[in-house]
């Protein structure tokens, strides 16, 4: 694994420009930035409850080892590090790693970013208290093999949050026609609708992977307040789950 | 200066403080307390020495705190020390009057018995409110840099670097401008204001009177502008009296006896003989509204964002709503692990407050234009309007709740809940 200091200095300006793109709230990743507070609310509360942490305290996640799979520019890794967690950010896209590193360094955050996959980390025997598996499972070729690797990455009693997109006519309209073609929120071809997974299918896959699904909520976009919020009932498009590795 | 027992968040490398506040007035100091209670490291810069700002000599100024403002102060632990010196506003009477003629027969009457929350608000004297907040700052661990001002600011991806007039440099996550309607913070951030001058000036003083005010606030609409009589503790009232700017300068130039001779016919004799208690002030009236409430790493609050015609006494109340909203947005962002100075975080505060503040500015402006004149037609419309409002209990109740600050999407502090 390359460390921050081995980056070619001539490359740094390029990575800084890409980091600025990742982190621009009104740029290419605007939909992720809009969804992020809602995702973070869910993740932080689930972890706080499971590990009995007080979110109003300073560095409440101190001592927890957290893996962010598909970390991208570090939109979830940085908040976890700011809350005190020991964070590994993994991404299969090599170009994201130096970009995420450059940004974290500017923020004064220490995060272990690696160009690797969940399967490789599991095979290497890495173990975590929590795994953030957000908006990844709809992109993998073999969801069950992938979720089994995620199971192996958890310490007994560990927690995984997993979010994805439901498969129904509404999600097709919202996520593909709406987000990719009409709003131009996401590049065309970002999603393949047939790979979308219903909440019941995901629960079943999680169970087959040896995990205990314990919670599911919808992420709902309100076009009036222009804000995402969590819903107990509406899982029709974007949704998130929590599962535990039995102790 | 640093209290080692204070909870700290992990500050990005090189930041000296999480939040830097420019301006130690009522909004700036209250925000400092609220953010410190939310776990932030806070630094407050003010050009005036704290000792001068905490001076408690009676100067005649008072505030009509809405219930919402009272709850914000209670949420920050300040109300216990203030409540015995605060006068409840039990009744508000609004009348259309003309000097020397007395009020018209149409009186709009708001009685606190019509809403369940108790009094409609409280009158608190400036000399009690200011020191109570300033005294609480050091216990809360707020770092105070007095007698200094910010002369330059430079935002970056990870924070904002501020330069003080003594050459010191401070790096913060966010800079909050609580520096009034001519905000330097706004100017340096390139935020411009829309401004209107009303050509009116408020004469402010306190009077002692023979009879008890029984907790009733009065608003008389005079041709030159409104006259508010607000009940202070004891047999005293705070007067906010609006005149055209030329007329106000003439009145302010009179000696106390001459000043009282001008006030008496407007005030009437319903509280018996009146005498001046404390100093006389003048405030030119104007409306200013910032094009943006936030910029990268910068937020504006109170008069720096929106200064309204003080016709309804809503300036401080609107500022404290900003305080509660900004403290909640930043505290929630911190608990999620977000970088609190990012523009998308600060924009949540702007979205929350801008509509409400604009509505207030527009309403007070319209109110002032409708009432500050002697046009006989408008006078009749006003009289009928006041009479009609009085006849409609539901409409009246909604006015009472609005004046008490009990409408809209309320921040947690404003609901009397902790952050």
Report on the structure:
- The complex is a heterodimer of chains A (247) and B (419).
- By secondary structure, chain A is an alpha/beta fold.
- Chain A has a single domain, classed as Vaccinia Virus protein VP39 (Rossmann fold, 3-Layer(aba) Sandwich), CATH 3.40.50.150.
- Chain A is built from 8 helices and 8 strands; from the N terminus they run ααβαβαβαβαβααβββ.
- In chain A, α1 (9-23) crosses α4.
- Chain B has 419 residues and is of the alpha+beta class.
- Chain B has one domain (17-415): FAD/NAD(P)-binding domain (3-Layer(bba) Sandwich).
- Chain B contains 12 helices and 20 strands.
- The two termini of chain B are 25 Å apart.
- In chain B, 49% of the residues are buried.
- Chain A binds chain B through residues 20, 23, 25-26, 33-34, 36-37, 40-41, 44, 55-59, 78-84, 103, 106-109, 226, and chain B through 7-15, 38-39, 157-158, 332-333, 335-339, 342-344, 347, 351, 419.
- Chain A: This is Ubiquinone biosynthesis O-methyltransferase.
Shape, principal axes of CA atoms of chain B: globular
Approximate strand percentage of chain B: 25-35%
Strand order of the largest sheet of chain A: 3-2-1-4-5-8-6-7
The helix/strand series of chain A, from N terminus to C terminus, equals HHEHEHEHEHEHHEEE
Largest interface: A-B, 29 and 26 residues
Poorly predicted parts of chain B? 1-10
Domain count of chain A: the total is 1
Tell me about the largest β-sheet of chain B. Answer: 9 strands, mixed
Shape summary of chain A = globular
| Unreliable segments of 5+ consecutive residues of chain A | 1-6
Number of strands of chain B: 20
Average pLDDT, all residues of chain A: 88
Question: What value does the Rg of chain B take, in angstroms?
Answer: 22 Å
**CATH architecture label of chain B:** 3-Layer(bba) Sandwich
Task: Give me the secondary-structure category of chain A.
Answer: alpha/beta
Write down the CATH class of chain A: Alpha Beta
InterPro entries (chain A): SAM-dependent_MTases_sf, UbiG_MeTrfase
EC number (chain A): 2.1.1.222, 2.1.1.64
Catalytic activity (chain A): a 3-demethylubiquinol + S-adenosyl-L-methionine = a ubiquinol + S-adenosyl-L-homocysteine + H(+); a 3-(all-trans-polyprenyl)benzene-1,2-diol + S-adenosyl-L-methionine = a 2-methoxy-6-(all-trans-polyprenyl)phenol + S-adenosyl-L-homocysteine + H(+)
GO molecular function, one term (chain A): polyprenyldihydroxybenzoate methyltransferase activity
């Amino acid at each position: 694994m390359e460390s921050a200091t081995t980056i070619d200095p001539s490359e740094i300006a390029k990575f800084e420009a890409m980091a600025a793109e990742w982190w621009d709230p009104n740029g290419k990743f605007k939909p992720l930035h809009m969804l992020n507070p809602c995702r973070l609310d869910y993740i932080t509360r689930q972890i706080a409850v499971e590990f009995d942490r007080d979110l109003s305290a300073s560095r409440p996640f101190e001592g927890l080892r957290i893996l962010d799979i598909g970390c991208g520019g570090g939109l979830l890794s940085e908040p976890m590090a700011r809350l005190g967690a020991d964070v590994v950010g993994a991404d299969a896209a090599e170009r994201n790693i130096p970009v995420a590193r450059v940004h974290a360094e500017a923020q004064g955050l220490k995060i272990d970013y690696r160009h690797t996959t969940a399967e490789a980390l599991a095979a290497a025997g890495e173990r975590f208290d929590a795994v953030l598996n957000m908006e990844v499972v709809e992109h993998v070729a073999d969801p069950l093999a992938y979720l089994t690797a995620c199971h192996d990455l958890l310490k007994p009693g560990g927690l995984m949050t997993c979010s994805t997109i439901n498969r129904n006519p509404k999600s097709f309209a919202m996520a593909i026609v709406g987000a990719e073609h009409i709003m131009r929120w996401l590049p065309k071809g970002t999603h393949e609708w047939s790979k979308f997974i219903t909440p019941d299918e995901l629960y079943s896959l999680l169970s087959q992977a040896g995990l205990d699904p314990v919670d599911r909520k919808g992420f709902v976009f309100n076009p009036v307040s222009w804000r995402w919020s969590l819903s107990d009932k509406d899982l029709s498009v974007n949704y998130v789950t929590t599962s535990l590795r039995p102790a | 200066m640093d209290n080692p027992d204070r909870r700290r968040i992990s500050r990005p490398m090189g930041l000296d403080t999480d939040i830097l506040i420019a301006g130690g007035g009522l909004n700036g100091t209250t925000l400092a307390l609220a953010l410190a209670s939310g776990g932030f490291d806070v630094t407050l810069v003010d050009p005036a020495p704290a000792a001068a700002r905490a001076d408690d000599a009676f100067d005649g100024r008072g505030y009509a705190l809405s219930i919402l403002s009272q709850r914000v102060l209670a949420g920050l632990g300040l109300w216990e020390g203030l409540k015995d010196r605060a006068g409840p506003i039990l009744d508000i009477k609004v009348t259309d009057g003309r000097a020397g003629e007395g009020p018209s027969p149409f009186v709009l009457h708001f009685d606190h018995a019509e809403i369940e929350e108790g009094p409609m608000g409280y009158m608190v004297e400036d000399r009690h409110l200011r020191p109570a907040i300033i005294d609480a700052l050091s216990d809360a661990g707020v770092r105070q840099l007095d007698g200094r001002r910010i002369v330059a600011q430079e935002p970056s991806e990870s924070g904002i670097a501020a330069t003080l007039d003594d050459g010191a440099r401070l790096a913060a996550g966010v800079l909050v401008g609580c520096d009034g309607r001519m905000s330097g913070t706004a100017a340096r951030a390139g935020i411009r204001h829309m401004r209107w001058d009303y050509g009116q000036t408020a004469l402010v003083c306190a009077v002692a009177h023979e009879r008890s005010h029984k907790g009733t606030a009065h608003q008389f609409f005079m041709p030159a502008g409104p006259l508010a009589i607000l009940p202070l503790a004891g047999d005293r009232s705070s007067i906010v009296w609006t005149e055209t700017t030329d007329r106000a300068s003439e009145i302010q130039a009179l000696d106390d006896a001459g000043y009282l001779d001008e006030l008496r016919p407007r005030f009437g004799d319903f509280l018996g003989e009146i005498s001046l208690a404390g100093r006389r002030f003048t405030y030119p009236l104007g409306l200013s509204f910032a094009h943006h409430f936030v910029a990268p790493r910068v937020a504006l609050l109170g008069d720096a964002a929106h200064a309204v015609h003080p016709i309804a006494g809503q300036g401080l109340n609107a500022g404290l709503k900003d305080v509660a909203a900004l403290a909640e947005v930043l505290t929630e962002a911190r608990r999620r692990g977000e970088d609190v100075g990012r523009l998308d975080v600060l924009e949540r505060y702007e979205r929350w407050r801008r509509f409400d503040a604009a509505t207030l500015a527009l309403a007070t402006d319209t109110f002032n234009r409708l009432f500050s004149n002697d046009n006989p037609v408008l006078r009749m419309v006003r009289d009928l309007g006041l009479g009609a409002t009085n006849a409609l209990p539901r409409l009246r109740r909604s006015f009472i709740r609005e004046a008490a600050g009990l409408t809209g999407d309320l921040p947690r502090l404003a609901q009397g809940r902790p952050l």
